[in-house]
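Question (not urgent): is this output format expected?
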Amino acid sequence: WGLFGPAPSWTYGVLNAVSVLIIACPCALGLATPMSIMVATGRAAGSGVLFRDAEAIETLRRVSVLVVDKTGTLTAGRPSFAAVEVTAGFTQDQVLRWAASLDLGSEHPLAAAIVEEARRRNLPLSAAEDFSSDSGIGVRGRVDGLQLMLGNEALMARGAVRLGALASAAESLRNSGASVMHLAVDGQLAGLLAVKDPIKSTSPDAIATLRNAGLRIVMATGDGHATAKAVGRALGIDEFHGEVTPADKLALVERLQAGGAKVAMAGDGINDAPALAKADVGIAMGTGTDVAMSSAKVTLVKGDLQGIAIARRISEDTVANMKQNLMFAFAYNAAGVPVAAGLLYLFGGPLLSPMVAALAMSLSSFSVVVNALRLRKATQ
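Got this back:
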Protein backbone atom coordinates (compact mmCIF):
# COMPACT_ATOMS: atom_id res chain seq x y z
CA TRP A 1 0.00 0.00 0.00
CA GLY A 2 2.91 2.38 0.52
CA LEU A 3 3.37 2.63 -3.25
CA PHE A 4 -0.18 3.82 -3.83
CA GLY A 5 -0.85 5.98 -0.79
CA PRO A 6 -2.37 5.36 2.64
CA ALA A 7 -4.20 2.08 3.13
CA PRO A 8 -7.98 2.45 3.53
CA SER A 9 -9.33 1.65 6.99
CA TRP A 10 -11.27 -1.41 5.84
CA THR A 11 -8.00 -3.21 5.04
CA TYR A 12 -7.41 -3.59 8.78
CA GLY A 13 -10.48 -5.80 8.96
CA VAL A 14 -9.37 -7.84 5.96
CA LEU A 15 -5.86 -8.29 7.38
CA ASN A 16 -7.23 -9.19 10.80
CA ALA A 17 -9.67 -11.73 9.42
CA VAL A 18 -7.01 -13.34 7.22
CA SER A 19 -4.43 -13.49 10.02
CA VAL A 20 -6.94 -14.98 12.45
CA LEU A 21 -8.23 -17.60 10.01
CA ILE A 22 -4.74 -18.57 8.78
CA ILE A 23 -2.78 -18.37 12.01
CA ALA A 24 -4.80 -18.03 15.22
CA CYS A 25 -7.60 -20.52 14.52
CA PRO A 26 -5.37 -23.38 13.34
CA CYS A 27 -2.99 -22.82 16.26
CA ALA A 28 -5.74 -22.98 18.86
CA LEU A 29 -7.51 -25.95 17.30
CA GLY A 30 -4.23 -27.70 16.61
CA LEU A 31 -3.22 -27.42 20.26
CA ALA A 32 -6.54 -28.70 21.62
CA THR A 33 -5.79 -32.44 21.37
CA PRO A 34 -1.95 -32.63 21.54
CA MET A 35 -1.78 -30.55 24.71
CA SER A 36 -4.26 -32.81 26.51
CA ILE A 37 -2.43 -35.93 25.33
CA MET A 38 0.97 -34.55 26.33
CA VAL A 39 -0.10 -33.56 29.84
CA ALA A 40 -2.04 -36.80 30.38
CA THR A 41 0.91 -38.92 29.21
CA GLY A 42 3.23 -37.19 31.65
CA ARG A 43 0.75 -37.52 34.48
CA ALA A 44 0.21 -41.21 33.71
CA ALA A 45 3.95 -41.87 33.69
CA GLY A 46 4.17 -40.29 37.13
CA SER A 47 1.54 -42.79 38.29
CA GLY A 48 3.40 -45.77 36.83
CA VAL A 49 1.34 -46.08 33.63
CA LEU A 50 3.05 -45.82 30.24
CA PHE A 51 0.86 -45.19 27.19
CA ARG A 52 2.42 -46.08 23.86
CA ASP A 53 0.24 -43.73 21.80
CA ALA A 54 -2.76 -41.40 21.86
CA GLU A 55 -5.05 -44.11 20.49
CA ALA A 56 -4.58 -46.16 23.67
CA ILE A 57 -5.59 -43.18 25.81
CA GLU A 58 -8.71 -42.57 23.73
CA THR A 59 -9.74 -46.26 23.53
CA LEU A 60 -9.22 -47.37 27.13
CA ARG A 61 -12.24 -45.44 28.44
CA ARG A 62 -14.50 -47.41 26.06
CA VAL A 63 -13.28 -50.86 27.15
CA SER A 64 -16.11 -53.06 28.43
CA VAL A 65 -14.32 -56.39 28.96
CA LEU A 66 -10.98 -57.03 30.66
CA VAL A 67 -9.29 -60.39 30.04
CA VAL A 68 -6.58 -61.13 32.60
CA ASP A 69 -3.86 -63.74 32.78
CA LYS A 70 -3.26 -65.37 36.17
CA THR A 71 0.44 -66.04 36.75
CA GLY A 72 2.35 -62.80 37.20
CA THR A 73 -0.74 -60.67 36.60
CA LEU A 74 -3.21 -61.60 39.32
CA THR A 75 -0.54 -63.48 41.26
CA ALA A 76 2.89 -62.34 42.40
CA GLY A 77 4.76 -64.24 39.70
CA ARG A 78 7.16 -65.59 42.33
CA PRO A 79 5.86 -69.14 42.83
CA SER A 80 7.17 -71.49 45.49
CA PHE A 81 7.35 -75.27 45.46
CA ALA A 82 4.42 -76.92 47.26
CA ALA A 83 4.44 -80.72 46.83
CA VAL A 84 5.47 -83.73 44.77
CA GLU A 85 3.40 -86.89 44.38
CA VAL A 86 4.59 -90.08 42.69
CA THR A 87 3.16 -93.26 41.24
CA ALA A 88 4.32 -96.77 42.11
CA GLY A 89 7.89 -97.47 41.06
CA PHE A 90 9.14 -93.88 41.31
CA THR A 91 10.54 -91.80 44.17
CA GLN A 92 9.97 -88.15 44.95
CA ASP A 93 13.64 -87.30 44.39
CA GLN A 94 13.60 -89.03 41.01
CA VAL A 95 10.53 -87.14 39.82
CA LEU A 96 11.81 -83.83 41.15
CA ARG A 97 15.28 -84.32 39.63
CA TRP A 98 13.92 -85.22 36.18
CA ALA A 99 11.45 -82.34 36.21
CA ALA A 100 14.11 -79.85 37.32
CA SER A 101 16.57 -81.10 34.70
CA LEU A 102 13.94 -80.62 32.01
CA ASP A 103 12.98 -77.19 33.38
CA LEU A 104 16.56 -75.91 33.18
CA GLY A 105 15.70 -75.01 29.58
CA SER A 106 12.50 -73.15 30.48
CA GLU A 107 12.08 -69.50 31.47
CA HIS A 108 8.63 -69.97 33.04
CA PRO A 109 8.29 -68.83 36.70
CA LEU A 110 6.83 -72.21 37.68
CA ALA A 111 9.88 -73.94 36.24
CA ALA A 112 12.18 -71.74 38.32
CA ALA A 113 10.41 -72.88 41.51
CA ILE A 114 10.96 -76.55 40.66
CA VAL A 115 14.63 -76.03 39.81
CA GLU A 116 15.14 -74.09 43.02
CA GLU A 117 13.63 -76.90 45.13
CA ALA A 118 15.80 -79.53 43.43
CA ARG A 119 18.91 -77.51 44.15
CA ARG A 120 17.79 -76.97 47.74
CA ARG A 121 17.69 -80.76 48.10
CA ASN A 122 21.14 -81.02 46.44
CA LEU A 123 19.81 -83.24 43.63
CA PRO A 124 22.20 -83.66 40.66
CA LEU A 125 20.67 -82.13 37.53
CA SER A 126 21.36 -83.23 33.97
CA ALA A 127 21.18 -81.25 30.76
CA ALA A 128 18.09 -81.97 28.67
CA GLU A 129 18.45 -83.00 25.04
CA ASP A 130 15.95 -82.35 22.23
CA PHE A 131 14.23 -79.79 24.44
CA SER A 132 11.04 -78.27 23.09
CA SER A 133 8.25 -76.16 24.53
CA ASP A 134 4.58 -76.65 23.78
CA SER A 135 3.64 -73.05 24.45
CA GLY A 136 1.23 -72.67 27.32
CA ILE A 137 0.93 -76.37 28.22
CA GLY A 138 4.41 -77.71 29.02
CA VAL A 139 7.82 -78.91 27.85
CA ARG A 140 9.43 -82.04 26.42
CA GLY A 141 12.94 -83.40 26.21
CA ARG A 142 15.34 -86.25 26.90
CA VAL A 143 17.13 -86.57 30.26
CA ASP A 144 19.51 -89.47 30.98
CA GLY A 145 18.18 -91.23 27.90
CA LEU A 146 14.56 -91.01 29.07
CA GLN A 147 11.85 -89.25 27.08
CA LEU A 148 10.15 -86.79 29.45
CA MET A 149 7.02 -84.65 29.24
CA LEU A 150 6.19 -82.09 31.93
CA GLY A 151 3.03 -80.04 31.79
CA ASN A 152 -0.72 -79.83 32.27
CA GLU A 153 -3.44 -82.29 31.35
CA ALA A 154 -3.59 -81.02 27.78
CA LEU A 155 0.04 -82.02 27.20
CA MET A 156 -0.56 -85.42 28.80
CA ALA A 157 -3.55 -85.95 26.53
CA ARG A 158 -1.39 -85.29 23.47
CA GLY A 159 0.99 -87.99 24.66
CA ALA A 160 -1.85 -90.39 25.55
CA VAL A 161 -0.69 -90.50 29.17
CA ARG A 162 -3.24 -91.80 31.68
CA LEU A 163 -3.61 -89.68 34.83
CA GLY A 164 -6.00 -91.78 36.89
CA ALA A 165 -3.43 -92.86 39.49
CA LEU A 166 -2.94 -89.30 40.76
CA ALA A 167 -6.24 -87.71 39.71
CA SER A 168 -7.57 -87.20 43.24
CA ALA A 169 -4.25 -85.79 44.52
CA ALA A 170 -4.08 -83.38 41.57
CA GLU A 171 -7.66 -82.21 42.12
CA SER A 172 -7.04 -81.61 45.82
CA LEU A 173 -3.93 -79.51 45.10
CA ARG A 174 -5.72 -77.49 42.44
CA ASN A 175 -8.60 -76.77 44.76
CA SER A 176 -6.09 -75.22 47.15
CA GLY A 177 -4.99 -72.85 44.38
CA ALA A 178 -1.80 -74.67 43.38
CA SER A 179 -0.62 -75.13 39.80
CA VAL A 180 -0.12 -78.81 39.00
CA MET A 181 2.30 -80.23 36.44
CA HIS A 182 2.39 -83.91 35.51
CA LEU A 183 5.62 -85.70 34.65
CA ALA A 184 5.53 -88.55 32.16
CA VAL A 185 8.56 -90.82 31.61
CA ASP A 186 8.60 -92.75 28.34
CA GLY A 187 4.86 -92.32 28.04
CA GLN A 188 4.07 -93.42 31.61
CA LEU A 189 2.88 -91.13 34.41
CA ALA A 190 5.65 -90.89 37.01
CA GLY A 191 4.29 -88.19 39.26
CA LEU A 192 3.12 -84.64 39.62
CA LEU A 193 4.56 -81.45 41.04
CA ALA A 194 2.59 -78.62 42.61
CA VAL A 195 3.68 -75.00 42.78
CA LYS A 196 1.82 -72.20 44.53
CA ASP A 197 1.92 -68.60 43.38
CA PRO A 198 0.35 -66.26 45.97
CA ILE A 199 -2.23 -63.72 44.85
CA LYS A 200 -0.91 -60.16 44.85
CA SER A 201 -2.10 -58.21 47.86
CA THR A 202 -3.42 -55.48 45.55
CA SER A 203 -5.35 -57.78 43.20
CA PRO A 204 -8.61 -58.13 45.22
CA ASP A 205 -9.09 -54.38 45.56
CA ALA A 206 -8.10 -53.79 41.93
CA ILE A 207 -10.58 -56.36 40.63
CA ALA A 208 -13.34 -54.94 42.85
CA THR A 209 -12.61 -51.40 41.64
CA LEU A 210 -12.67 -52.40 37.97
CA ARG A 211 -15.85 -54.42 38.37
CA ASN A 212 -17.55 -51.50 40.14
CA ALA A 213 -16.51 -49.33 37.19
CA GLY A 214 -18.64 -51.56 34.97
CA LEU A 215 -15.99 -53.82 33.46
CA ARG A 216 -16.64 -57.49 32.83
CA ILE A 217 -13.66 -59.45 34.17
CA VAL A 218 -12.58 -62.69 32.46
CA MET A 219 -9.60 -64.75 33.65
CA ALA A 220 -7.70 -66.95 31.18
CA THR A 221 -4.86 -69.18 32.40
CA GLY A 222 -2.86 -72.17 31.29
CA ASP A 223 -3.42 -73.75 34.70
CA GLY A 224 -6.13 -76.36 35.28
CA HIS A 225 -9.81 -75.51 35.67
CA ALA A 226 -9.76 -76.28 39.38
CA THR A 227 -6.82 -73.92 39.97
CA ALA A 228 -8.52 -71.22 37.90
CA LYS A 229 -11.72 -71.72 39.89
CA ALA A 230 -9.88 -71.46 43.22
CA VAL A 231 -8.15 -68.21 42.24
CA GLY A 232 -11.33 -66.85 40.68
CA ARG A 233 -13.28 -67.62 43.83
CA ALA A 234 -10.68 -65.83 45.97
CA LEU A 235 -10.88 -62.73 43.77
CA GLY A 236 -14.59 -62.76 43.03
CA ILE A 237 -14.10 -63.56 39.33
CA ASP A 238 -16.99 -65.71 38.12
CA GLU A 239 -15.91 -66.07 34.50
CA PHE A 240 -12.67 -67.99 33.96
CA HIS A 241 -11.03 -70.33 31.46
CA GLY A 242 -8.41 -72.92 32.42
CA GLU A 243 -5.84 -74.87 30.40
CA VAL A 244 -5.83 -72.28 27.63
CA THR A 245 -3.02 -72.00 25.12
CA PRO A 246 -1.78 -68.73 23.56
CA ALA A 247 -3.99 -69.54 20.57
CA ASP A 248 -6.97 -70.02 22.90
CA LYS A 249 -6.37 -66.62 24.51
CA LEU A 250 -6.21 -65.03 21.08
CA ALA A 251 -9.43 -66.78 20.06
CA LEU A 252 -11.13 -65.63 23.28
CA VAL A 253 -10.25 -62.00 22.55
CA GLU A 254 -11.46 -62.32 18.96
CA ARG A 255 -14.72 -63.94 20.10
CA LEU A 256 -15.41 -61.15 22.57
CA GLN A 257 -14.65 -58.53 19.94
CA ALA A 258 -16.95 -60.27 17.46
CA GLY A 259 -19.70 -59.93 20.06
CA GLY A 260 -19.30 -56.15 19.98
CA ALA A 261 -17.16 -55.69 23.10
CA LYS A 262 -14.19 -53.40 23.42
CA VAL A 263 -11.57 -55.70 24.91
CA ALA A 264 -8.50 -55.01 27.03
CA MET A 265 -6.05 -57.85 27.70
CA ALA A 266 -3.70 -57.80 30.68
CA GLY A 267 -0.77 -60.18 30.85
CA ASP A 268 2.94 -60.48 31.48
CA GLY A 269 4.32 -63.44 29.55
CA ILE A 270 5.37 -64.56 26.10
CA ASN A 271 2.21 -66.69 26.01
CA ASP A 272 0.09 -63.55 26.32
CA ALA A 273 1.73 -61.65 23.45
CA PRO A 274 -0.69 -62.68 20.63
CA ALA A 275 -3.75 -61.73 22.70
CA LEU A 276 -2.12 -58.49 23.87
CA ALA A 277 -1.48 -57.48 20.27
CA LYS A 278 -5.00 -58.39 19.15
CA ALA A 279 -6.91 -56.69 21.97
CA ASP A 280 -8.25 -53.18 21.51
CA VAL A 281 -5.92 -52.23 24.36
CA GLY A 282 -3.10 -54.56 25.39
CA ILE A 283 -1.88 -54.00 28.95
CA ALA A 284 1.48 -55.48 29.98
CA MET A 285 2.94 -55.82 33.44
CA GLY A 286 6.22 -53.95 33.74
CA THR A 287 7.50 -56.89 35.79
CA GLY A 288 6.90 -59.27 32.86
CA THR A 289 8.69 -60.15 29.65
CA ASP A 290 9.96 -57.74 27.01
CA VAL A 291 7.84 -59.52 24.39
CA ALA A 292 4.67 -58.80 26.33
CA MET A 293 5.57 -55.13 26.79
CA SER A 294 6.44 -54.69 23.11
CA SER A 295 3.07 -56.23 22.12
CA ALA A 296 1.01 -54.02 24.43
CA LYS A 297 -0.16 -50.42 24.11
CA VAL A 298 -0.08 -49.78 27.86
CA THR A 299 2.55 -50.86 30.39
CA LEU A 300 1.98 -50.89 34.15
CA VAL A 301 5.47 -50.18 35.48
CA LYS A 302 4.81 -51.67 38.93
CA GLY A 303 2.86 -54.65 37.59
CA ASP A 304 -0.11 -53.66 39.72
CA LEU A 305 -3.65 -54.03 38.34
CA GLN A 306 -4.62 -50.90 40.26
CA GLY A 307 -2.80 -49.15 37.43
CA ILE A 308 -5.61 -50.15 35.05
CA ALA A 309 -8.13 -48.21 37.13
CA ILE A 310 -5.76 -45.23 37.15
CA ALA A 311 -5.20 -45.50 33.39
CA ARG A 312 -8.92 -45.74 32.72
CA ARG A 313 -9.61 -42.64 34.81
CA ILE A 314 -6.85 -40.77 32.97
CA SER A 315 -8.39 -41.85 29.67
CA GLU A 316 -11.81 -40.52 30.66
CA ASP A 317 -10.42 -37.23 31.98
CA THR A 318 -8.22 -36.72 28.92
CA VAL A 319 -10.99 -37.19 26.37
CA ALA A 320 -13.25 -34.86 28.36
CA ASN A 321 -10.44 -32.31 28.46
CA MET A 322 -9.90 -32.55 24.69
CA LYS A 323 -13.59 -31.87 24.09
CA GLN A 324 -13.41 -28.85 26.41
CA ASN A 325 -10.39 -27.52 24.54
CA LEU A 326 -12.09 -27.88 21.18
CA MET A 327 -15.17 -26.14 22.55
CA PHE A 328 -13.06 -23.26 23.92
CA ALA A 329 -11.18 -22.87 20.64
CA PHE A 330 -14.29 -22.98 18.46
CA ALA A 331 -16.31 -20.64 20.68
CA TYR A 332 -13.51 -18.11 21.09
CA ASN A 333 -12.67 -18.04 17.42
CA ALA A 334 -16.31 -18.00 16.31
CA ALA A 335 -16.77 -14.85 18.39
CA GLY A 336 -13.34 -13.36 17.69
CA VAL A 337 -13.14 -13.62 13.91
CA PRO A 338 -16.10 -11.24 13.22
CA VAL A 339 -14.75 -8.75 15.79
CA ALA A 340 -11.27 -8.89 14.26
CA ALA A 341 -12.80 -8.45 10.81
CA GLY A 342 -14.45 -5.17 11.89
CA LEU A 343 -17.97 -6.13 12.95
CA LEU A 344 -17.92 -3.63 15.83
CA TYR A 345 -16.72 -0.88 13.47
CA LEU A 346 -19.96 -1.19 11.50
CA PHE A 347 -21.88 -0.20 14.63
CA GLY A 348 -19.61 2.62 15.69
CA GLY A 349 -17.20 0.51 17.71
CA PRO A 350 -13.42 0.41 17.45
CA LEU A 351 -11.50 -1.08 14.57
CA LEU A 352 -8.75 -3.32 15.90
CA SER A 353 -5.25 -3.07 14.51
CA PRO A 354 -3.71 -6.36 13.27
CA MET A 355 -1.34 -6.42 16.27
CA VAL A 356 -4.17 -6.08 18.80
CA ALA A 357 -6.25 -8.67 16.95
CA ALA A 358 -3.34 -11.11 16.88
CA LEU A 359 -2.76 -10.62 20.62
CA ALA A 360 -6.45 -11.11 21.40
CA MET A 361 -6.67 -14.23 19.30
CA SER A 362 -3.58 -15.75 20.92
CA LEU A 363 -5.62 -15.93 24.12
CA SER A 364 -7.54 -18.85 22.61
CA SER A 365 -4.31 -20.86 22.49
CA PHE A 366 -3.56 -19.74 26.04
CA SER A 367 -6.95 -20.98 27.26
CA VAL A 368 -6.34 -24.36 25.62
CA VAL A 369 -2.94 -24.74 27.30
CA VAL A 370 -4.23 -23.69 30.73
CA ASN A 371 -7.20 -26.07 30.51
CA ALA A 372 -4.94 -28.96 29.45
CA LEU A 373 -2.68 -28.33 32.43
CA ARG A 374 -5.64 -28.97 34.71
CA LEU A 375 -5.16 -32.66 33.88
CA ARG A 376 -2.08 -32.69 36.07
CA LYS A 377 -4.33 -32.48 39.13
CA ALA A 378 -7.53 -33.94 37.74
CA THR A 379 -5.92 -37.35 37.16
CA GLN A 380 -4.25 -37.70 40.53
